[in-house]
Amino acid sequence: MTDKLLLTFNAGSSTVKIGIFALDGEGPKRVGKAVVDFASRPLMLHLKEGPTQFELPLRAESGDDLADLMDEVFSELDKHFDLRAVTAAGHRIVHGGDIFDGPVELDAEALEKIRTLTELAPLHQPQALRLIRAVRHLRPQLFQTGSFDTTFHATQPDLVRRFAIPRAWHDRGVKRYGFHGLSYEYVAGALARQEPNIAHGKVVIAHLGSGASLCATENGLSRDTSMGFSTLDGIPMATRPGWLDPGVLLHFLGPLGKPLEEVEDMLYHQSGLLGVSGLSGDTRELIEDDSRQAKEAIDLFTLRIAGEVCRLAATLGGLDALVFTAGIGENQPKIRKRVAERLRWLGVELDDDTNARNAVKISTSASRIAVYVIPTDEEQMIVEECLAILESMEQISAL
């Protein structure tokens, strides 16, 4: 298997992350990483091969059909990796609804079921489907799998997933699903390998990036999470508001007469840290800005994170550990420190030196709650799930 490659595709609203993995006797090993940035003009392909990085402008445009774009991306990747060796591709798909409880082969039946869930994730689901179809157009015989961001949270009790709305709507799918599941699954597994006794306990994982949420786990299983029906829910994010009184939406759509499209754009692209600060949705910029607006955005962000830690601890009935992950959680000590300061009453105490170094364990020996920094790797989860499906099919065919 040393000559085989697997690709992973992680489609976001403004980027596509591509992982290139080689297969050997010890499992999949990442050999390259690429990111297509849809926000740049012209489009850019950021490619990393070992220690070397490349910035490659792309001629193709993004649109409803990504075949031309992916054709160009594949051509560029083929200059660095032998894409003839690619045997399968795995995709991150945001929403699996109540239909999918694990990864699947992306055959025609699965694609149709994924399409029916588009109304539950109107920005992310179509992008993933366009990408799957583009890859299929280029490589019709390539085996493709889908890994879902929602399935990790299927272990949550019905009570946690329920809104206080008429039961008929819950039964029709209007419920809390939760997201960032691939990240939480990876981090829960990493914690179990490093600190098995802690991982079996009551843990809150904070996935803090441009999209952000928190998850309560017990014995490595999801018990509650901050995101609910959509990726707008929970704590404030770079450009999304997090929790919002439904009356605010009624006010915009009713008395103010705002069009639905305008409200949707505001909620997804103009709110959150960007909306509060009026400056940026990037915490790295805001934390270094002395303006009142920037400080208020950071204060609101850390206040809501700390508050959600406490809510999730109530679901768990206690708290043994807090884990920070994703871009902000892994790399920004100042944000972690401000969250920890708001949780001091709970017994959280950070060690300034280990926190500054982004060490794995950043709490002091006196802290009643253990605090960790564990890098996430969604692409690793995607490739492992893709490989598991491939291996199961080989085993079945061998029977």
Automatic annotation (TrEMBL):
Keyword list (alphabetical) reads: ATP-binding, Cytoplasm, Kinase, Magnesium, Metal-binding, Nucleotide-binding, Transferase
Entry-linked InterPro entries: Ac/propionate_kinase (IPR004372), Aliphatic_acid_kin_short-chain (IPR000890), Aliphatic_acid_kinase_CS (IPR023865), ATPase_NBD (IPR043129)
What this protein needs as a cofactor is: Mg(2+); Mn(2+)
Provide a Gene Ontology MF annotation, just one: kinase activity
| UniProt remark on cofactor binding | Mg(2+). Can also accept Mn(2+).
Q: In this UniProt entry, which residues are annotated as the site Transition state stabilizer?
A: H180, R240
Positions contributing to ATP binding: K17, H207, L208, G209, S210, G211, D282, T283, R284, G327, I328, G329, E330, N331
Give the pathway annotation. Answer: Metabolic intermediate biosynthesis; acetyl-CoA biosynthesis; acetyl-CoA from acetate: step 1/2
The protein's location, in the record's own words, is: Cytoplasm
Q: Where is the active site?
A: D149 (proton donor/acceptor)
Quaternary arrangement and interactors, per the entry?
Homodimer.
Q: What does this protein do?
A: Catalyzes the formation of acetyl phosphate from acetate and ATP. Can also catalyze the reverse reaction.
Q: What is this protein called?
A: Acetate kinase
Q: Report which gene this protein is encoded by.
A: ackA
